[in-house]
Amino acid sequence: MKKVWSVVAVAAMLCLVSSTTRAQDVANGEKVYKAKCASCHGPDGKGDTAAGKATKARDLCSADVKAETDAAWTDIIIKGKNKMPSYDKKITDAEVKDVIKYMRSLCK
Ligand code: HEC
Question: What is the distance between the alpha carbons of residues 78 and 59, in angstroms, rounded to a whole number?
């Protein structure tokens, strides 16, 4: 019986750890986004800012953009595309992952 409880305790702990890491990733992503991306993409991802309109940033929550995969987004963030600047070496791989998580969370 004791053994069962320790398995339950370990499982509960693992759940807790993975859910806090996830919240942390999104929080990191939010920092990067607000500092580097929101000027064009807007605080809500809609691109409804002066710079967003000038560069033609698209609504991240539109069906077309939402349908793009994380891999496609990673590519655009690293290499840039049209007026979207390249962030190669300007942000870390982990920051790219986190910022994508944050951007996805804007569209729920
Ligand atoms: C100078 C304005 C500007 C800044 C700053 C900017 N972007 Fe963009 N971004 C754009 C534009 C414009 C596009 C659309 C490119 C296209 O498809 O023509 C875009 C596209 C994207 C896309 C692909 C979605 C789509 O429209 O297909 C992602 C993902 C993205 N940006 C993430 C980021 C992240 C992350 C940052 C900050 C690290 C950032 N952007 C900063 C202008 C900007």
Answer: 19
31 lines ligand 1 (CB under 6 A): no
Closest residue by Cα to residue 104 from 39, 20, 25? 25
Which pTM was predicted?
0.87
The CATH number of the structural domain formed by 2-106 is 1.10.760.10
Of ligand 1's listed atoms, the one at least distance from the Cα of 52 is: 2
Q: Which sequence spans correspond to the domains of the chain?
A: 2-106
Distance from the CA of 57 to the center of ligand 1, in angstroms?
Answer: 6
Cα–Cα distance measured from residue 65 to residue 18, given in angstroms and rounded to the nearest whole number: 28
What digits encode the pLDDT tens for the residues 54-97? 999 999 999 999 999 999 999 999 999 999 999 999 999 999 99
- 42 CB within 6 A, ligand 1: no
